[in-house]
Amino acid sequence: KEDKKDQELKEFEENIGFKIDTMVCIKIMYEEESYGVLQIVNKKDGSNFNEEDIDKIKIIATLLATKCKINNENYLSKHKPLVTLKNVRKVYVTGSVKNTALNDINLDIYQGEFLVILGKSGCGKSTLLNLIGGMDSLTDGQFIFDGVDYSIASEKKLTAYRRKDVGFIFQTYNLMPELNLIDNIKFIAAICKKPLNINDLLELVGLTQYRKQYPSQLSGGQQQRVSIARALVKNPRLILA
Question: DSSP 3-state assignment of 215?
Answer without folding.
Answer: helix
